[in-house]
Design a protein that fits this description.
The chain has 134 residues and is mainly alpha-helical. It contains seven helices and no strands.
């Protein structure tokens, strides 16, 4: 039972990673989010969402939940993500100002690339174990 619960948690984590990539890769989604929640710093939310769901350790990316290409794509995005975080000020400017930063463009492009790879298999079920791809 513990194995199944662990796998379900990992499937949900994978789905949250896809959602974080969807937001980071889409300026229209970021603008929509900002319009719906003006009190939220959407640039900070883009950073926090991925930071909350990706730790990059080998155990997180192992097993049937990630193909080799997905692991590579997530690690590549993580490198760009970490670089952008290091280059960015602690207090990010408004969303419109962030859109003009070359680092934010790099982040968006890297998120699109990773998302394309992740969407080959797409999100996994939230409440049942994914069947093996056989």
């Amino acid at each position: 039972m513990a194995y199944q619960e662990n796998m379900l948690v990992r499937q949900r984590l994978r789905n949250r990673q896809i959602e974080a990539l969807e937001l980071a890769s889409s300026w229209p989604a970021q603008l929509k989010y900002q319009n719906e929640a003006p009190e939220v710093s959407v640039p900070r939310e883009v950073i926090n969402q991925f930071d909350d769901v990706f730790h990059g350790d080998q155990s997180q990316l192992s097993g049937p939940l990630y193909s080799q290409s997905e692991e590579i794509a997530l690690r590549k995005y993580s490198c760009v993500f970490n670089d952008v975080c290091q280059k960015s000020p602690a207090s990010l400017p408004s969303l419109q100002e962030v859109f003009e930063l070359s680092a934010w463009q790099e982040l968006r492009d890297a998120a699109k690339e990773a998302l394309d790879v992740m969407m080959v298999r797409g999100p996994f079920p939230e409440d049942t174990l994914k069947k093996d791809d056989v």
